[in-house]
Amino acid sequence: MLTYKNITPGGVVVSNNINLISQGLDGALNRHKMLSNNIANVDTPNYKRKDVDFITALRNQFGQKSSLSLATTDNNHIVGSKKANKSFESPFLKNTSYRNDKNNVDIDVEMGEVAKNGIYYNTLSRQINTQFIILKDVINKGGRQ
Predict the structure, then answer these.
(1) Three-state SS letters, the chain
(2) Rounded-to-integer distance, Cα 2 and Cα 25, Å
(3) Nearest to 99 by CA among 33, 31, 30, 45
(4) Structure pTM?
(5) In 1, 63, 96, 115, which residue has its Cα 20 to 30 A from 125's Cα atom?
(6) Is residue 76 assigned to a domain?
(7) Any long-range contacts for 12-19 (C-beta under 8 Å, 24+ apart)?
(8) Number of domains in the chain
(9) Would 144 be classed as within a structural domain?
(10) Residue 63: inside a domain, yes or no?
């Protein structure tokens, strides 16, 4: 995991972004390993699929709550929902079985999750690349404009 501690105040945002994105990449890698293991055990009797919810772990680590604090400053503002979007939670039940051999791995679902995780990983890779470009630009210019 990458950590940058002694960066000027202007670089703190870049540093925090790099650290957060790096942890997201680590989580996506761990999730890919779990999904690959599920696919490898698609024909194993009594095997139950496994998954990792690293989004919630990241939110907990960085102190982000599951609800949003919304404020209105004018009576004409639209009142929003106080609950955050829970779309990152896994919709799969761990105690289900799809087949007679008590295996609950659905290859189509797993392949879809691998594709979704790959898109997430690629997006984070592009974002961390952008952060390093910003950091490189700051280092090269050294305060000059």
Answers:
(1) CCCCCCCCHHHHHHHHHHHHHHHHHHHHHHHHHHHHHHHHCCCCCCCCCCCCCHHHHHHHHCCCCCECCCCCCCCCCCCCCCECCCCCCCCCCCCCCCCCCCCCCCHHHHHHHHHHHHHHHHHHHHHHHHHHHHHHHHHHHCCCC
(2) 11
(3) 45
(4) 0.66
(5) 63
(6) no
(7) 14/131, 14/134, 14/135, 14/138, 17/127, 17/131, 18/128, 18/131, 18/132, 18/135
(8) 1
(9) yes
(10) no
Give dist(CA 44, CA 122) in Å, integer.
31
Place of tokens 């599951």: 66
pLDDT in tens, the chain (145 residues): 444 444 444 556 677 888 889 989 998 999 999 999 999 999 999 898 988 877 776 677 666 654 555 567 777 766 654 444 443 444 455 567 778 888 999 999 999 999 999 999 999 999 999 999 988 888 888 766 6
Q: Which domain holds residue 25?
A: 13-42+50-56+106-145
Which amino acid is it at 96?
Answer: T
The length of the chain, given as a count of residues: 145
